[in-house]
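This week, look over our next protein:
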Amino acid sequence: MKKVLIVVDMLNGFLKPGAFLYCGDDSRRIIPFVREMVQQYSDAGNPVIFLADNHNPGDPEFTVYPPHCLKGTEEACVIDELKDLARKEILIPKTRFSGFYGTDLDKILEEIKPELVEVVGVCTNICVLYTVEGLRNRDYRVKVHRKGVASFDEEAAEFALRQMQTVLGAEIV
């Protein structure tokens, strides 16, 4: 089966203590699972796509959230625990919640033609949700790994997982 792993925003800006939008100590629990998934995909020769928040100063998103993951800063870099694996994979900078907005994600997926897209990363209720929405609206079969997603707001994350499953038709495992 042709499949793709999308790793959403596993960046210092969300997972490094002290960052403006740090998702909290509990969010770091997903790092070993995400690393294992990336390694499995890489070893099997399946594509891995890292989506990475990458903002310019004055980005309109900063009217909602504080400035974060500014282009060229350490916050916009993949976390140390995944950096070695990410170097071998596809990295797509993004400026919005959805991995599709203003990126080449659509084109890349059209070229790969996956039968399954698996998704891990942060934040469950923001960038993961809106990327899954984009995938499902393009009719991709999607599997989201509960052990591989996290957010700073657990209640919102649970709601988002239910929405992904009941409204969007993604498989939550």
The first helix runs from residue 12 to 15.
